[in-house]
Specification:
This protein is of the alpha+beta class. It has 2 domains: 60 residues, 434 Repressor (Amino-terminal Domain); 92 residues, Jelly Rolls. 24% of the residues lie in helices and 36% in strands. The chain has a 6-stranded antiparallel sheet, with no helix packed on it. Helix 4 packs across helix 5. It is elongated.
């Protein structure tokens, strides 16, 4: 993995700290911090851990910020579930599905569920959406968000086009 620790300078400035102030807060020498900001130093994990904690970050979050990737390109995967045709893209914390369905198509507790929040946005048509004890008719432009682990059903009342987004829940502990 190639890391760009110039992000350290940005974090430090966002927190209104000089190199000397950060050095005092985390116990890492000013020269090491300065060299890290210019990518002229290799340091131990303990050093990175102490710097990360100074900003309220975990070590893995700090390293993730320093990774050289500026974007992440994926190609959609196509599949069918019931009478719904899907295109899906997956990222670490997000899954997005675009679906089309003919009138009368039904999908009960769609697959691909993790401990996520789910959002369904109707782009075209009319959908009936059901949760235990609740039922909604969603028209074009309507959306609904819920806990994806709950049993839920989709029914296309008209030819429909929808976007479904699964967003990972934050760490609970």
């Amino acid at each position: 993995m190639i890391c760009d620790f110039s992000i350290l300078r940005e974090l430090r400035k966002q927190h209104g700290m000089s190199i000397a102030e950060l050095s005092e807060k985390c116990g890492v020498s000013s020269s090491i911090i300065s060299k890290l900001e210019r990518n002229q130093n290799v340091c131990e994990m303990e050093t990175l851990f102490r710097i990360a904690r100074s900003f309220g970050l975990t070590l893995s979050d700090f390293i993730s910020l320093a990774e050289k990737r500026t974007s992440h390109l994926v190609t959609a995967e196509q599949y069918q579930s019931g009478d719904f045709m899907f295109d899906r893209v997956d990222y670490g914390n997000l899954r997005t599905m675009h679906a089309v369905a003919p009138a009368g198509a039904k999908l009960s507790s769609p697959e691909l569920h993790r401990d996520d929040y789910e959002l369904c946005w109707v782009l075209k048509g009319k959908m009936r959406f059901s949760l235990p004890g609740e039922s909604y008719e969603l028209n074009s432009g309507d959306s609904i968000q819920f806990d994806a682990l709950l049993h839920h059903d989709y029914e296309a009342l008209e030819e429909s086009e929808i976007i479904i987004i699964h967003l990972k829940k934050g760490k609970r502990f």
